[in-house]
């Protein structure tokens, strides 16, 4: 059964459209504290996706527990004390693994990047970041602002 036709005034804009893909990626997250999804788009084509979770082949936090919770690490601090990779990291890694350039692309993410991800985004050549929820990391904001990358916050769809 085909979906009903949509009137032109009901069509989502490009940012909303691709943010829906990021929301779908978020549903795959295995993080117990914050589910995040990311999508990298180049020339209006999805080239990579990612969600936060443990590296390939390793047990997920849902199976072994959250190290950050056990150590009582506050959100936004000590990113290295985590079994998982961030959604943005996984999307960038997926593109590299498959030999796909993301230079000049847009990263759509359900949460604004942390400072570690911001540095990766800058060096990967991504020119625009669109997110829906803010993640409190002042250094990330400073890095992104200083890089010239366009940052856009849109409401969650």
What's this, in brief?
The protein is an alpha/beta fold and 157 residues long. 34% of the residues lie in helices and 18% in strands.
What does this 3D model show about the protein?
- Strands 2-1-3-4-5 form a 5-stranded mixed beta sheet.
- Helix 5 runs parallel beside helix 6.
- 34% of the residues lie in helices and 18% in strands.
- With 157 residues, the chain is α/β, with parallel strands linked by helices.
- Strand 4, helix 6 (138-147) and strand 5 form a beta-alpha-beta unit.
- The protein is globular, with a radius of gyration of 16 Å.
* Strand elements, count: 5
Low-confidence segments, ≥5 residues, pLDDT <50?
Answer: none
> Which structural class matches the secondary elements?
alpha/beta
Share of helical residues: 25-40%
Portion of residues in beta strands equals: 15-25%
Written as H for each helix and E for each strand, in order along the chain, the element string is HEEHHHEHEHE
State the end-to-end distance. 25 Å
Biggest pleated sheet: 5 strands, mixed
- The whole-angstrom Rg is 16 Å
Please give the order of strands in the largest beta sheet. 2-1-3-4-5
Oligomer: single chain
What would the average pLDDT be, to the nearest integer? 91
Number of helices: 6
Described by the principal axes of the CA atoms, the overall outline is: globular
């Amino acid at each position: 059964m085909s979906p009903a036709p949509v009137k032109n005034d009901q069509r989502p804009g490009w940012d909303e459209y691709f943010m829906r893909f990021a929301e779908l990626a978020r549903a795959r997250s295995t993080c117990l504290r914050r589910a995040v999804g990311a999508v990298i788009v180049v020339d209006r084509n999805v080239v990579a996706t990612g969600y936060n979770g443990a590296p390939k082949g390793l047990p997920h936090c849902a199976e072994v527990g959250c190290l950050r919770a056990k150590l009582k690490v506050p959100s936004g601090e000590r990113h290295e004390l985590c079994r998982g990779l961030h959604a943005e990291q996984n999307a960038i890694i997926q593109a590299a693994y498959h030999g796909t350039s993301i230079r000049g692309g847009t990263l759509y993410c359900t949460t604004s990047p942390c400072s570690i991800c911001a540095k990766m985004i800058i060096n990967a050549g991504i020119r625009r970041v669109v997110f829906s929820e803010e993640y409190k990391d002042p250094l990330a904001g400073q890095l992104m602002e200083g890089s010239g990358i366009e940052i856009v916050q849109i409401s969650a769809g």
